[in-house]
């Protein structure tokens, strides 16, 4: 809490005796000068001089009553000046940038009162010192073009205990009207997704004003982060595993279809699970290892990861005999090489992949499980 404000004025000292007025109305002179009046101007500041643990984001103001400023500076511990602006009346100076953690700031102000007398003001205050500062990152990155299922993800380097405080610092602006909500998937990650898939060609601006936000336990945000990205065309993959066909839809109409072999039907552990996931990565080549099932260092082409549970859409010419006929993979969607290349070239990170017909469901332990939750469950994970 700030201390009481201290008001600094320069008072002119009165010297000698004060003149007296006799009963007759005649002035009786003393030996000194006439009484000097103090200046009218008064300078105050917020935060007050000697305040401690001051917020680094609240604006600093220096104000003069009955006068106007001729000079105002606020300097940090290293002597660097803090940017600020005077109002049109030149009676209020307001800082125009955030302060630093654990710094001492010093005021120096001069003003002239309405009586023409000068006044000066000096003093200092200290800003809060966090127990720790926590970095945050935003995804998608700047200028990315992503699919209509892409969530916005804020990830923190350490646990956030005051989730509401962090969430209040997050804003999403869209060029088209979109209903959406934040949901905390862990104490280090909060995602925003629309209720339905994004409208195609939506422009999205995300601002995370996290610098100075108290996450609890004396931990504070390290820096503000922002991103601007674009939603691309509407493309959705639909796979009904018993059909052995992967269908690609554009704007709701079938755009392409490819014969496929999915996860083994008889073993739920090897199914291509039910649920809506997204394309997480596009990898021209990938190495697959699963010692449990007897293979390591298997190289495949045109790979689109759809979960971190192990599922991909990829080329598998070694399984050519079963593609389009039988489900024999260990959970991936196997395509002929030419089809895998065609799909790979058409895909964007964030394209939805909807799987039905399997015995097992996608686990919600995947890194991107946003679309595996219904809307009411998703909203219930908001901290606000």
TrEMBL record:
What the entry lists under PROSITE patterns is as follows: LD_TPASE, PROKAR_LIPOPROTEIN
Which Gene Ontology MF annotations are present? acyltransferase activity; peptidoglycan L,D-transpeptidase activity
Swiss-Prot/TrEMBL keywords: Acyltransferase, Cell shape, Cell wall biogenesis/degradation, Lipoprotein, Peptidoglycan synthesis, Transferase
Catalytic residue list: 314 (proton donor/acceptor), 332 (nucleophile)
The pathway is: Cell wall biogenesis; peptidoglycan biosynthesis
- InterPro entries xref list: Big_10 (IPR041280), LD-transpeptidase (IPR050979), LD_TPept_cat_dom (IPR005490), Transpep_catalytic_dom (IPR038063)
Q: Which residues form the L,D-TPase catalytic domain?
A: 235-356
Q: Name one GO biological process term.
A: peptidoglycan-protein cross-linking
Q: Which GO terms describe its cellular component?
A: extracellular region
What PANTHER family would the database entry show? L,D-TRANSPEPTIDASE, L,D-TRANSPEPTIDASE YCIB-RELATED
- Please identify the protein, giving its name as recorded: Lipoprotein-anchoring transpeptidase ErfK/SrfK
Taxonomy of the source species: Bacteria, Bacillati, Actinomycetota, Actinomycetes, Pseudonocardiales
